[in-house]
Each structure stands twice: as structure tokens, then as C-alpha cells.
Amino acid sequence: MTNNIWRIALVSILLFLAFSGCTTTTDETSVSNDDVLFQISTIDSLIAGSYDGVMPVCELKEQGDLGLGTFDRLDGEMIVMGGEVYQAKADGHIYQVNDTTTTPFAAVTFFEADDTITIGSGTDYSFLQSTIKEMVPGPNLMYALKIEGTFANISIRSVPAQSKPYRPLLDVVAEEEAVYHHESINGTMVGFLLPYYIENINVPGYHFHFIDANRTIGGHVLACNLTSGTVELDYTYDFTLSIPESSSFSDALPGDKDALKAIEQ
């Protein structure tokens, strides 16, 4: 009888420790996931013309609540903010996105600001970038950024959905990009500042998409001037890359740095 009592007690203790360990591990995972940049596919495959959607928006939202990307067939610019996914089509307007809509390329993270910078009047795109670089701990981390404010002016672009056979991204941008200029507008830029070693996987340096406060217009940011605003920075220490199971991805050729620079600017 005594031995049985001890056996029961030992089993109870082990079960308690096991469940305690699972609870602790789950909490730690939840915390660490906040500092992960998740990405589907690579910028090189997108540049090469791999535009077929491979991940539904519902799955992408499980990986982050802020970020950017594009949609199946390169149909516009993606803005992810506050857990919602917005589509800026070639007409410059914002559209709601169905959870079953797919993306060929996107990057997201669960955004929690680690630092905030106040922006003053007369801050153009170049000065904005240099101001942020002066504030961050160093060039080798990944930073998610959210910039809210009043813009004296902003230039944004988008591209229309493509048809097969797909042309390289540089050709699409050169021949079909639609550029829009807006003045005296309130809104938010979301994006990333990524290090040099991310080359061929994502865009080194800055990459921003814009959405106005009324959620009616948006696109890829080409230039801007801020009247006032704030920059929130989230330092990101881990990176997860999801590789598409598609022939268009596996057959994509290495990207061209000059092509990427031309596309982004």
C-alpha cells in the first residue's frame, strides 16, 4: 500500500512538471514570435516573374499584423496594418481583401514598438531615412517601421494584374506602373529597414507602402515630405522564410541588383 501511494505521488509530480513545462514553453514561444520577420518567397523570384499566389491571406495574417507585399498575378501593392490586409490596385485606390486571396511574396511581423521618433516639418524622404538610421542600434538588425503623420506630399505607385507568360518585374514597372501624387494628406507608411545581407531574399535598405487615414488610397512609396509625424520602430531578431512549392519559384534565376534598385526607386 505504501509503495502504491508513493508511485501515485511520483506520477502526480511528474505530470505537474510536464504540464508546467508545456505552459512555460508556450508563453516563451508567444513572446519570441513577436520579434520574428516572416516572409513568403524571395524578392529574386518576384523580380524574375514568379507572380502566382502561393499563400492565402488568412495564413499570412497568422504570421504578423504589419507588413507589405503583393497579390496573385502581381495585382497591386499589399499593406498589412493592425492585422488587416489592404490592396492598393493600379487605379491607386484601396480595396478590401478576401482571406482566400493569395500572395506570391509578402513580409510581416507582429508589431510592437521598441522606439519612437518625432518627425518635424520639412522632412523629405532622404532626411527621414537618415534620421531613422541615426536612431537605430546598428546596421545589421532588421527593423519593422510604422510612420504616421501629415504629408505635405507623397508619390506612390502600383501595377496592374499580369497575364501569362509573365514578364520580369522590371519590364512591368517600366511599362505599366501607375504613379500618383497626393498633397496635404494624413496616413501611414509601413515597411522595413533591412540589412545588406538580406540581398536576393528581400530588399536591403528601406521599403515602404502607404495607406491614407481614410483607407481609400495607397501604394508603394517613391517619395514623400512630412509636415509632422512619428516613426515607430520594432527591432526584429529572428527571420523565417517560407519557400513556395512551385516550379516558377524553383526555376527562378538570380536577381539583378541594378534591376531591384530601378524597381524600388
From TrEMBL:
Any Pfam family hit: AAL_decarboxy
One MF annotation (Gene Ontology) recorded for this entry: acetolactate decarboxylase activity
Catalytic activity: (2S)-2-acetolactate + H(+) = (R)-acetoin + CO2
Coiled coil: none
GO biological process: acetoin biosynthetic process
Keyword set includes Lyase: yes
Pathway: Polyol metabolism; (R,R)-butane-2,3-diol biosynthesis; (R,R)-butane-2,3-diol from pyruvate: step 2/3
Broadest EC class assigned to this enzyme: lyase
Recorded superkingdom: Archaea
Keyword line: Acetoin biosynthesis, Decarboxylase, Lyase
InterPro entries: Acetolactate_a_deCO2ase
Keyword Repeat part of the UniProt annotation: no
EC assignment: 4.1.1.5
Similarity-based family: Belongs to the alpha-acetolactate decarboxylase family.
Protein name: Alpha-acetolactate decarboxylase
Organism: Methanohalophilus portucalensis FDF-1
